[in-house]
């Protein structure tokens, strides 16, 4: 007989402290979402009210060379960063067979025994570079998120090969190596819009730290009651995301555009062979608000389990962050104060997801 998990504390013990994760709940024969996962009505996702994002992916192969195609793609990237903060790219340089292998590997890892995965729980993990967990900040959330994950920090290849889980480290390292050139190319475009040259060392500084995650969203008996990930923006510079064909990613409009009104939630449908790119908080701050770190969330599904694999790029912890002076000079005022990234990280990871509230830490006049 499946356990009832009526008591929120028993859910917390089973899922978080024992490291069984949401997948453990589902595997136990769960027939309804436990109360601990039921989101307030305003946080639930109504897929019927969401707008479908109809823009085609951006073809990055057209960035090579110069001419009208190059300029058109530059305009597309800049406009996407200024409006939605999300866009999809194809011909990105990451081998297509690797994308399939990543999805297969993620499903394989989360199919391992709870005991094997729980080795990497933050309180017992043999390395601070690797953390296995569930939800985002279970100790502080009013309602848990329907997600398990394995998160890895990248310092160098040797440490990754030594400390990352054996089952996934090879394919993740290949993903990182094949993606980083694309990230640099995108940053060259986005910073070039402010007059920064392609060989400026700032570009390497802004992606000096990388983190990779494999996320697993088990099939959910009541997907309308909970969320896979709550409303948030990413903390870093740029995020590269591989999503599978199931879908469930939604982005909030910060202003009116041709494809949605301010406050609308836009569904980012899976596109074959594409990667999703989104602007993070650091790029919004550096651009003095010109580029929008995208508030987004993830819906669950009742049919099949979903996986996604993001790469988060960001400056190193000791980096000082401040809006670009040439942008501030043009705007006439700075919207964000100077800070050291580690202080921003402590604030970001010390609170539950709450939209873009993390940016209040750096805003001179928070709204």
From TrEMBL:
Cofactor needs: L-ascorbate
Xref: InterPro entries: DIOX_N, IPNS-like_FE2OG_OXY, IPNS-like_sf, Oxoglu/Fe-dep_dioxygenase_dom
Superkingdom of origin: Eukaryota
Example GO biological process: coumarin biosynthetic process
Keyword line: Dioxygenase, Iron, Metal-binding, Oxidoreductase
A GO MF term: dioxygenase activity
Gene3D superfamilies: B-lactam Antibiotic, Isopenicillin N Synthase, Chain
Fe2OG dioxygenase domain sequence ranges: 202-315
PROSITE patterns in alphabetical order: FE2OG_OXY
Record keyword Iron present: yes
Record-stated family: Belongs to the iron/ascorbate-dependent oxidoreductase family.
Name of the protein: Fe2OG dioxygenase domain-containing protein
